[in-house]
Amino acid sequence: MRRLDKGAPLRAAIRAAGLDIPHLAARTRELDPTGKGLSPAYVGFIVGTGKTAREETSDRAAGLIAQALDQEVDAFFETVFLTLNESTSTRVPRIGASRKSAPTDLPERLLDQRELADFLRKSMSWIDRQIKEAEQAGHIWPGLIYVGRSRRFDPRAVLAAMRQHREQIPA
Predict the structure, then answer these.
(1) What is the pLDDT of residue 96?
(2) Pick from 10, 19, 29: which is nearest to 73 by CA?
């Protein structure tokens, strides 16, 4: 999630609620089902204006902060969907070759696991867990393509499946 207007609505809501960063962090701890909540330092990164301020945060952190302020997440954050507007391939099509005639079953560029982890801002172990859970459920993880013995990923298929999964989760 990306904070709106560099966090200005968030800071205004904190002032209106009569809270400060440590008290907001304590409120997230009370509301978090796991009891962990967010640390005051992390809340400071999210609501701050200085060099260490962060524009993006996790869905969980955004949800806890919004819940602690009795507001909707949309009042403070926007969902970020990573999309590829154009190919990252360095391959140049032959002169006269039509893009419409090219096969569309594979993207022009597949990512290895480290590239996909960087692209999704997830860890490689998170990807391993997702693949293992899909295998246990009798599925192939969306976007996973085996090339010989190595894994390659179609980033568009992975993103589409993640979007679809998010839409199926009840709010």
Answers:
(1) 43
(2) 10
CB 71 within 8 Å of CB 56: no
For residue 42, give the nearest of 26, 34, 31 by alpha carbon: 26
Residues 6+ apart with CB under 8 A from 128: none
Count Cβ neighbours within 10 Å for each residue of 25-36 and write b for 16 or more, e otherwise.
bbbbeeebeeee
Tell me the one-letter amino acid at 66: A
Report which residue type is found at 118. D
pLDDT in tens, 74-118: 899 988 765 445 555 555 444 444 444 444 455 667 888 888 888
pTM to 2 decimals?
Answer: 0.49
Residue whose token pair is 């809270």: 19
**The two structure tokens encoding residue 71:** 């507001």
